Amino acid sequence: MSLVLDRPATADVPLPPPGPRRLTGLQFLLPLFSVTVLLAVPAAVFVAPVVARGSVSVGVAAVLFAVSVVYCALRLGSLMWEAEPRWAVLGLWMFSYAWLAVAGLTQTLAGENPLGFTLGDLATEQAALLLAGLICFDVASRVRPRRAGALLPAALDARLRGRVLDPTRVLLLGVVALVTAPVLVALLGGPGVLLSDRQAVFDQLSSSGLYSSASNATGGMVAVIGNVLPFVALICLVKLLADDPEQRRRAEVWALGAALVALNALMNNPLSNPRYWAFAIVLAFFFCWRFSTRPAVLTTFVTLFTLSSLIIFPYLDHFRVSEAQMKQYGIRTPSYSQPVDYVLGKTDYASISDVGVALRVVDHHGHTLGRQLLGAATFWVPRSLWPDKPDNTAFLIADEIGFPNRNLDSPLWAEGYVDFGWLGACGLLALGGLAARRLDDAFVAHRGARTRVVPLVAVAAPVIAGYEFILIRGSLLQAMARIVVLLVLLLLVSRVPRTAARHAAVRSHLTGSPQ
Questions:
Q1: How confident is the model at residue 282, as a pLDDT?
Q2: Quick count: other Cβ atoms within 10 Å of Cβ 505?
Q3: Where does the chain cross the membrane (predicted)?
C-alpha cells in the first residue's frame, strides 16, 4: 500500500522547499550597500536641492517623514538580507519608500505639493498616519500563522494551495485571447489608437457610447478584458514552457506564445495604458523568473527599481501626455530640470498629498462609515441599478480642493481613513500585511520545486504582487475590476490534480480522518 501512496506523491507534489539561505561575502554586503544608497540618494537628489532654495519648513511632520524614509530603507534592507522572494511584502515597502515617504519629506520641507494646496495643522497628522500604517503592516506581515492559510477555512485553503496549471486550459485560454482579439481591438479603436495614447482610447470609447456621462462601466470592462485576457494567457504559457519539458517540444505552443507576445504588445503597451498596469505586467514576469530569487539579483532589483521610481518614472510621461493635455487637466507644468521638480509638481507623486486631503475630507464631511469600501467591493453593480453608488475616493479628494483632474490617487491610508479614521487606515494596512505574508509564504514554499506540474501559486503570487502597486496606490474602486478578472482567469486555467486528490482520499480512509 505504501508504494501506491508514494509514487503519485512524487509525481504531483512539489519537493520540499530549500532551507533558509545563508548570505556570505559579497551577497552579505550588497544589502548594506543598498540601504546606504537608499538613504543617500534622497538626501542628495531631493533634500539638498530643497535646502539650497532656502525657506525650508522643518517641523514635526518633516521629522516623521524622515523617520518613515529610514524605516522603509531599513525594512527593505532586512528583507534583502533574508534573501527570500517575498515580493508582496517588498512591494509595499518599495512603494511607500518612493511615493509616500521620500515624496512626503521633500514636499513638506519645500512647503509645496503637486496639488497646490496647504495642509496646515493636518500636516503632522498626515505624516503620523503614514508611519502608523507602516508599523501596522510591518507587525502583521511578521505574524506567522499556527496553520497555513489562517485567513481561509482549512478545506478551501488546501484546495487553493493544491491547484496546478492545466496545460490544456492554458492553451485554450490563449486561443480564446487570439480569437476575441479582433473584436476587442475594434471596440478600442484599432491598432492606430492603441499605439497612440490614452486620450485617443478614451475618445474612441466615448464616441462609440461605451463611455457616457452616466457610466463608464461598459467601456471600462471592455478595456479590462482586453488587457487581462492576453496577459494571463501569456504568463501562464510562459511558465509552462519554463517548467514543463513536454510543452517545450511542441511547435504549436511556441507559435501560440509568439502570437500572444504580439497581442500583448498591442493591448498592454505603456502608451495607451496606465504606466502602473504596464509595470504590473513587467513585474509579474520578473517575479516568475527563476533567477530573480537569487540574492544578488533580488538586491539589485529592489535598489534599482526603487530609485528608478523617483528618478526615471516621471520622465515617461513625455511619451504619453502632451503639454496641451497637461494644461487641460490642471497638471502643473513648472520647469522640470531635475527630479525634485517632478516630486514637487507632478501628480505622479501626489499620493501622500491625497492622504492629507482625505484628512480634510473627514474634517469637513465626517467619516463615510464603510460606504467607500462597500463601493469598491460592489464595483460590478452598475449605477443604473444603484444611482447613489459611492464614487471613487479619489473623486472626493479632488472635489474637496476643487482640483480639475479627478483622476488622482487614493492610497490605502486614505481609503481606510475616510471610512473609519485611524482605526480604518491601520486596520486596512494590517490586513494587507497578513495577506502579503500568506501569499509570500505560499510562493516561497514552492520555490525551487522541480515537478512536471506548475503550482497555481507559482503564477498567482507574482501576478498579485505585481498588481499590488495599483491596489496600494488606489483608488480601490478603480483597481478592483482588473484584480477580480485576473483571479477568475487564473482559477479557470488551473485544477486540483486528480492523483493528488486520490492520494489524499486514500490517506483519509486509512487514518479515519475526515477529508
A1: 93
A2: 11
A3: 28-52, 58-76, 88-110, 122-140, 170-194, 214-241, 276-292, 297-316, 451-470, 476-493
**Averaged pLDDT, 48-58:** 84
Q: What is the pTM of this model?
A: 0.86
Contact between 357 and 115 (Cβ < 8 Å): yes
Helix 122-142, helix 103-110: angle, nearest 10: 170
The three three-digit cell numbers of residue 499, written as one number: 492523483
SS3 readout for 223-242: HHHHHHHHHHHHHHHHHHHH
Residue 505 has pLDDT above 50, yes or no: no
Q: Is 448 left (phi over 0), alpha (psi -120 to 50) or beta?
A: left
User: What are the tens digits of pLDDT across the range 392-429?
Assistant: 999 999 999 999 888 899 999 999 999 999 999 999 99
Are the C-beta atoms of 101 and 347 separated by less than 8 Å?
Answer: no
Distance CA 476, CA 470 (A): 8
The C-alpha atoms of residue 259 and residue 253 are separated, in whole angstroms, by 10
- DSSP labels for 341-393? HHHHH-GGG-HHHHHHHHHHHHHHH---TTHHHHHHHTTTS-TTT-TTPPPPH
199's CB contacts (< 8 A; 6+ apart) are 325
Show the cell assigned to 81. Answer: 538580507
The pLDDT, as a whole number, for residue 10 is 39
